[in-house]
From TrEMBL:
<feature type="domain" description="EGF-like">
    <location>
        <begin position="136"/>
        <end position="178"/>
    </location>
</feature>
<keyword id="KW-0677">Repeat</keyword>
<keyword id="KW-1015">Disulfide bond</keyword>
<dbReference type="GO" id="GO:0003756">
    <property type="term" value="F:protein disulfide isomerase activity"/>
</dbReference>
<comment type="similarity">
    <text>Belongs to the CRELD family.</text>
</comment>
<dbReference type="Pfam" id="PF07645">
    <property type="entry name" value="EGF_CA"/>
</dbReference>
<feature type="domain" description="EGF-like">
    <location>
        <begin position="262"/>
        <end position="303"/>
    </location>
</feature>
<feature type="disulfide bond">
    <location>
        <begin position="168"/>
        <end position="177"/>
    </location>
</feature>
<dbReference type="InterPro" id="IPR018097">
    <property type="entry name" value="EGF_Ca-bd_CS"/>
</dbReference>
<dbReference type="InterPro" id="IPR000152">
    <property type="entry name" value="EGF-type_Asp/Asn_hydroxyl_site"/>
</dbReference>
<keyword id="KW-0245">EGF-like domain</keyword>
<dbReference type="InterPro" id="IPR001881">
    <property type="entry name" value="EGF-like_Ca-bd_dom"/>
</dbReference>
<dbReference type="InterPro" id="IPR002049">
    <property type="entry name" value="LE_dom"/>
</dbReference>
<dbReference type="InterPro" id="IPR006212">
    <property type="entry name" value="Furin_repeat"/>
</dbReference>
<dbReference type="InterPro" id="IPR000742">
    <property type="entry name" value="EGF"/>
</dbReference>
<keyword id="KW-0413">Isomerase</keyword>
<protein>
    <recommendedName>
        <fullName>protein disulfide-isomerase</fullName>
        <ecNumber>5.3.4.1</ecNumber>
    </recommendedName>
</protein>
Length: 325
């Protein structure tokens, strides 16, 4: 039933307050659906591995009816457990491909033991073998055995999608993920492998694992006697370790006796905390303003308990008298 226009308009503010609907779940690709079906089939193999015909004379049944291990009865039990009744896409795919699965089970599984490879890659042609990509299942960059030199992910790997390019893992770069990013150095490299290891935290670039192997120091560090050392926390730039080697001091610090020292704002002539009765506490590089315990905090003062009670009573006595209607 359609709402009257006035009622519909009245609901508009409520609708605007409702949270946006969650984004619809990304629809699985044909390859993902096929791989999912194969994974469930393989799980069915595991679940039925120790079963038999279930009759009173298993030995006679297996001799007469063939072994349960490769029987149509076992296949039927696996197929019946593949899809939940509510999984429309799984049931649709199973109905369309049941004859293929039956043919593989009864005639082809000895010749093609990898169901995924036979079913998804060679028969339905919706997936590719690992290390290959795209409509024609071409080898990924670096080859299908070790795509991206083992240091990245090949775009479209195992699917009929993607372009085969490499998305390198952290620390690696280059078309084949064999080069090291800044902050990493090459700890092993040969014709087949490239290993990049993180530099010391002091280094932006490096040739080895210590702060003496830096090619360039990180921001906040400086080269001192052949090693990158960290500037003191009170420094803005430095020439060496400690507060005495700061180029400049950070806010809240000032140079005193040749080094950056904390400024005690609470002891300055100009009061840092301006509200009446307020206490000032110095902290490294700053300060805090706090009312004493038991005092009531207002915008411009810390009010003692007795004054706060008196002010409250006074405000109550000034309320207008109640008038009968």
């Amino acid at each position: 039933m359609r709402l009257p226009r006035r009622a519909a308009l009245g609901l508009l503010p409520l609708l605007l307050l409702l949270p946006p609907a969650p984004e619809a779940a990304k629809k699985p690709t044909p390859c993902q659906r096929c791989r999912g079906l194969v994974d469930k089939f393989n799980q069915g193999l595991v679940d039925t591995a120790k079963k038999n015909f279930g009759g009173g004379n298993t030995a006679w049944e297996e001799k007469t009816l063939s072994k349960y291990e490769s029987s149509e009865i076992r296949l039927l039990e696996i197929l019946e457990g593949l899809c939940e009744s509510s999984d429309f896409e799984c049931n649709q795919m199973l109905e369309a491909q049941e004859e293929h699965l039956e043919a593989w089970w009864l005639q082809l599984k000895n010749e093609y033991p990898d169901l995924f490879e036979w079913f998804c890659v060679k028969t339905l042609k919706v997936c590719c073998s690992p290390g290959t990509y795209g409509p024609d299942c071409l080898a990924c960059q670096g080859g299908s055995q070790r795509p991206c030199s083992g240091n990245g992910h090949c775009s479209g790997d195992g699917s009929r999608q993607g372009d085969g390019s490499c998305r390198c893992h952290v620390g690696y770069q280059g078309p084949l993920c064999t080069d090291c990013m800044d902050g990493y150095f090459s700890s092993l490299r040969n014709e087949t492998h490239s290993v990049c290891t993180a530099c010391d935290e002091a280094c932006k670039t490096c040739s080895g694992p210590t702060n003496r192997d830096c090619g360039e120091c990180q921001v906040g560090w400086v080269l001192d006697e052949g090693a990158c050392v960290e500037c003191d926390s009170s420094c803005v730039g430095c020439t060496g370790e400690g507060p005495g080697n700061c180029k400049e001091c950070i806010p809240g610090y000032a140079r005193e006796h040749g080094q950056c020292a904390d400024v005690d704002e609470c002891s300055l002539a100009e009061k840092a905390c301006v509200r009446k009765n307020e206490n000032c506490y110095n902290t490294p590089g700053s300060y805090v303003c706090v009312c004493p315990d038991g005092f009531e905090e207002t915008e411009d003062a810390c009010v003692p308990p007795a004054e706060a009670e008196a002010t409250e009573e006074e405000s109550l006595t000034q309320l207008p008298a109640h008038e009968d209607l």
